[in-house]
Amino acid sequence: MNWNDVKFFITLARFRRLSKAAAHLGTSHVTVANRIASLEETLGFKLFIQNRNGFELTKSGVIFYRHADELEHVLRLGLEEAKVDEHTRPKVRIGVTEGVGDNFLATRVARWLKDQTLDIDFISLPKTTTVTSRRADISITLEKPKGENVIRQVLTDYHLGIYASPDYMARYGPVCQREQLESHPWIGYVDNILFSDELRYHHELSENLNFAFQSTTIRAQMEAAKEGVGLSILPEYMAKNEAGLVRVLPEIAFLRHYWISTNRDLHRFDGLLKVWNFIVDAFAREQSLFLSSPAQ
């Protein structure tokens, strides 16, 4: 039996759709389908049935998944234990959304790391990197992580507000009422390629906003706001201390959450636990940076 085929099976069982499984494996949906067919031929029984909800496990598939999942955990633990000896520095991979990764966590991790005996892979992207996909040892996400064998907790709540540049406000005049917002140009995400529904906060204001600038990263949106392109909804931990930005309608705030998660089996390793505790403590120490506006 080819272990790679089993890996494809585990991924499809978790995500239930060929496209999602392929995205997490970094391959095509055709390759996933071919791998599953190869495994079913080797085993001599069907693993999935396909319906409108995607791929569901057969009774035999459920039994096989239980053992395959357990084997994957055992192999991962064995790999981690094999890496740990007196001559090897542990390496921890952190997956984090780019907003809080680039604009808060990266500098603090780098500063702390100088005095540690471990290495960090810091994956900061405008997408969700999860521990269940095995792309990260510790993951920080906007949405509550799903999956079995996962430790998860809220890392912090945070607020976002509406911001613009002083130059923009001088040109367009003060915004005193919520009803005025639809008459202004806006900055935001590219709506049809959002990686999380938690980023659809513009829809909480109006379905009729006119966007002059859209980007996949929050940093680019903030830079556009500083240049006076329009109004932008930005996290307060990024925007409130920026000299080139002012708050618009401060009574309007958006509440969101960052979650931290890791694999339950890996949580017992010293290197990962040390990084986990540092991240949790770093956010706890600077709560005022995230929660300085009144909640709505």
Strands, count: 11
Main beta sheet: strand number and arrangement? Answer: 9 strands, mixed
Q: State the name of the first-level CATH class of the largest domain.
A: Alpha Beta
CATH superfamily grouping of the largest domain: Periplasmic binding protein-like II
Mean pLDDT: 89
What global shape is seen?
Answer: globular
Total domain units: 3
- The oligomeric status of these chains comes to single chain
Uncertain runs are none
* Helix coverage percent: 40-55%
Measured distance between first and last alpha carbons: 56 Å
Provide the structure class: alpha/beta
Architecture overview:
The protein is globular, with a radius of gyration of 23 Å. The protein is built from 11 helices and 11 strands. By secondary structure, it is an alpha/beta fold. The chain folds into 3 domains: 3-83, Orthogonal Bundle (Arc Repressor Mutant, subunit A), CATH 1.10.10; 91-156 and 257-287, Periplasmic binding protein-like II (D-Maltodextrin-Binding Protein, domain 2, 3-Layer(aba) Sandwich); 158-255, D-Maltodextrin-Binding Protein, domain 2. The protein starts with a helix and ends in a 6-residue tail after the last helix. Strands 3, 4, 5, 6, 7, 8, 9, 10 and 11 form a 9-stranded mixed beta sheet that branches. A two-stranded antiparallel ribbon has the order 1-2. Helices cover 41% and strands 24% of the residues. Residues 1-58 form the HTH lysR-type domain. This is DNA-binding transcriptional LysR family regulator.
